Amino acid sequence: MTPEHTRVRSSGVPRQRTTAPMTAPAPVAAEQPVRDRYLDLLRSIALVRVILYHLFGWAWLTVLFPSMGVMFALAGSLMARSLGRPAWGVIRGRVRRLLPPLWAFSAVVLTLLFAGGWDPSKDPDDGGAWGLLKLVNYVVPIGAPPFPWSIGSDSGLLESSWAVQTAGPLWYLRAYLWFVLASPLLLWAFRRAPWPTLLAPLGLTAVVGTGLVTIPGETGNAVTDFAVYGGCWVLGLAHHEGLLAQVPRYVSVSCSTLLMAFGLWWASGHQGPEGWALNDIPLAQATWSFGFVVILLQYSPSWRELPGRLAKWDKLVTLSNNRAVTIYLWHNMLIMSTVWILDRLYELPFLRSEGATAALDSTYTIWMFFLVWPLTGLAILGVGWIEDLAARRGPRLWPNSQ
Amino acid sequence: MASRTRRRRAKAPGGPRRRRLPMRLLLPSLVLAALMAMLMLRGYVHSEILADHRVRPEAAADRVPDEILDGGPVIDTRGGRTESLSLPDRRLVLTFDDGPDPTWTPKVLDVLKKYDAHAVFFVTGTMASRHPDLVRRMVEDGHEIGLHTFNHPDLSHQTKKRIDWELSQSQLALSGAAGIRTSLFRPPYSSHAGAMDNNSWPVTQYIGARGYITVVTDTDTDSEDWRRPGAAEIVRRVTPKGDEGAIVLMHDSGGDRSQTVEALATFLPDMQAKGYAFANLTEALDAPSAHTPVTGVGLWKGKAWVFLVQASDNITAVLVVGLAVIGFLVIGRLVLMLLLSARHARRVRHRGFRWGPPVTEPVSVLVPAYNEAKCIENTVRSLLAGEHPIEIIVIDDGSSDGTARIVEAMGLPEVRVVRQLNAGKPAALNRGVANARHDLIVMMDGDTVFEPATVRELVQPFGDPRVGAVAGNAKVGNRDSLIGAWQHIEYVMGFNLDRRMYDVLRCMPTIPGAVGAFRRSALERVGGMSDDTLAEDTDITMAIHRDGWRVVYAEKARAWTEAPETVQQLWSQRYRWSYGTMQAIWKHRKALVDRGPSGRFGRVGLPLVSLFMVVAPLLAPLIDVFLVYGLVFGPTGRTIAAWFGVLAIQAVCAAYAFRLDRERMTHLVSLPLQQILYRQLMYVVLLQSWITALTGGRLRWQKLRRTGVVEAAPDGSVPSQRTGSGSDRRPVG
């Protein structure tokens, strides 16, 4: 899809890592012998923030730390680093590492859906052959996969909206795939015209994310996501290319603060169903995330190891980075299974009194919070190793050391 | 002095520092949090916070029992009952809603007292909390109190939890104000029983379940006095038909109630003449009183609540005055600076302007240095490139990094090196003065770089024999970082606005240590540099003023310095400056009552400097407290507009200062962020100085100085951190 000849800088690096056994076991390690632990820490924080947000639903978390923007910026930076090699190989490597964990996830979700009696050809939104065709997105996330808005009943094991919740995070994979595919082009454009390329996604968001121009359906969602987070992705490229380092710090920080202030102001006047949750306000999300990421990358200290008090989080940061895709894919399903597990508690004899029920009711989310972490651990143990297989490494159960 | 203290730090390792670090943040932030809490409490009882002004439109009434719709105004739904009562003939119960109001309620009470009438006051919790004395007077006068919720929401919009809270909070206020609870209730926006609908009836039932009797008005005795129809019309509306008894609805709060008072003054005697009795509700119904006394914990909780509300009202009033003062100071200062600096610039830039005959005599340049190995060579070379005849004296204050050897190795005949054991900057400067051959003395720092014209421009004002000292124009070299850009803005404004203003007002408080010139005779008359304060430059400048000399600003004498790069370094530098300034002002306080030039400085300069540098920053946090309050609790739009207004004024001043100095405007992009991060840092530092001054008053200077530096001094082992070298490079005052 992307013209291979646009990448000409690489020479001497094997085009296909499979032909180079030295680099095959750990491609990432081969690209970057020393990981930047600052970026790793940011990715871990972003993941935890996503889980907390989906658990508690506090809108202010999206303002406190714009996780998705940060994750796309980190991915963009790594992508720019890899694109020193021929583009086609890099894209193939990225896609190959993304898909197997998705397949495992899709297999479980589809099994549950079909067991629940879902027939995609009879879906009210897009039934028939089109509905069946869209199932391909569970295998290659070029678009959003179809799912029933309601399946089973509320009295069942899970809420009837479980499919919506579970498939929700898949938009990130679609957007990621689009960005990976577009990266060679973006990098080419960036090197020719850095500033227009950097700011174009914000401009595009102002057009397609504000109702000025509405692209209907799933294409519209995809284009909007691409625009909203494109700025962050290109920022990642810019970070790797050293553009940010050329701008005096006072300029970049002051300007991004102004941009973020604009984002907040825009959000205040365009609140979505969840109020200040930036996810529902494209322009606010784009500007706030962009400014936030500029500041994070501007002060990027490039740690070889976590300093001071952060050092004790080292193993967790390593683990969450090695299993980022697994954690991200499965976290919503895990959150819903905490509900299923906690609902069993009401059946315990000593918790049947009215007082105990009320106490459980009022502390429900707290128990969900405590339960979701061991479940995440179980998910890592159960399916995390697929990430290693996808990256052509030896599978490891609990990769918490580098 | 910094050099000395740095050395001391090496002797006394960081123990006390770690202990003190939280205090300097804790105390100011506690004060701020307390102020914020008081502000919020006040906003809460003034219905600025948590107020809900929605009113539900009328709805169907098919679920309201007929006996209620057709029944009397006293509705009893306690314990599942559905009963209503009407008043006996010739009995009138006056009810007043929404009070107590400080203006109108006393007038209503006076009229009632005059005619010996009793009534029922349905008070809101907020008003009762704010005016407890009026509630007390109502009870003492024999009136009954009913609840009218805490802050007057339409209860049909509220949850049961909120209704419970409205009731209990109101009872709390009532018990604090008058030591009673009541069992009477009137829902906001209610009228007569026939107007009960499907929305309000469930609320009434719930209120009954909580043990309250709901009291509405009679069908045709609602005065609607809030529409201000005129006293005669009010009387007409509330007069019942025939001899019927009735509950009359009036308001003693919520606007001008003069018509209500006027109507009462005719209505009461007229009806009494007709044989009507004005009783409170339970008297009229021959029922036991609705009041129950509160004792014990409940009473004290109520009293504490009322006390807190009163305190918050008073504190807020003080804060608002403070905000007005600081607003006036900030804006007044900016305007004054604009006017006076424009005047100064016009004067010294006038084509024919001369201080006096051109000064061409040679000058001694003193460079006190402590561990300046990295920069001393640059400093000395920049001096050698100068256009004015000079001798250079480098005073090495016991450096451990070979500063003196570096200078000696340069092998320059114009440069002399004087060594001393580490004794501090004032001592080094005094030693330099003693070794200087010439009568004009320029002082600079070991890490400052002069332009070729700097020395010449700096000494030209000495052509005027009245000038005793000259301040140069220090500029920030490292201005690309955020903290550097902020300091750059601050320096440009400080040198081009503040200093010009002080020059015109003849009360320049500080010659910057980085670039200043003195007449030897002036220095000798005031006894040279002193180490009495942490800011020897401010101290000596004030002393020279008091001796009758003029101290002026030479805008073209530019010196390039490196500003602190970290918050920690900046903090310690500013702590020394602000504390040193306070010490210097205190040291020269007697100038206030002196005669002659010293008295002039004491009565004009000292108050001005104290106001702008010590008092104004103390009030500055109020801006942020009110900003946060306004942002969160509204009016958000107006708060932001006001903030931008002040920012715009600042930006205009800054732009003018940049233009005067011919600086590029790009750095002004960091001005908004400076206003929400840097300014706060500066006043927290000043607060800390205040705390030290107030708590450490009995400590000796020595000890104080050590405290300041232990906190302040950057790691002495890193010579590249040149920011600890004394109270130098002061942009302001």
TrEMBL record, chain A:
Ranges where the Acyltransferase domain occurs: 37-386
Coiled-coil ranges from the UniProt annotation: none
Top-level taxonomic group: Bacteria
Name of the protein in its database record: Acyltransferase
Region (Disordered): 1-26
InterPro entries with a match to the protein in the record: Acyl_transf_3_dom (IPR002656)
Transmembrane segments: 51-78, 98-118, 171-190, 197-215, 221-238, 250-268, 288-306, 327-346, 366-386
UniProt keyword list: Acyltransferase, Membrane, Transferase, Transmembrane, Transmembrane helix
One Gene Ontology MF term: acyltransferase activity, transferring groups other than amino-acyl groups
Keyword hit for Calcium: no
TrEMBL record, chain B:
Keyword Transmembrane helix: yes
InterPro entries: Glyco_hydro/deAcase_b/a-brl, NODB_dom, Nucleotide-diphossugar_trans
Residues passing through the membrane, by range: 317-340, 608-634, 640-660
Domain NodB homology: 90-279
Xref: Pfam families: Glyco_tranf_2_3 (PF13641), Polysacc_deac_1 (PF01522)
Keywords attached to this entry: Glycosyltransferase, Membrane, Transferase, Transmembrane, Transmembrane helix
Record-linked Gene3D superfamilies: Glycoside hydrolase/deacetylase, Spore Coat Polysaccharide Biosynthesis Protein SpsA, Chain A
Assigned protein family: Belongs to the glycosyltransferase 2 family.
Protein name stated in the entry: Bi-functional transferase/deacetylase
Organism in which the protein naturally occurs: Streptomyces dysideae
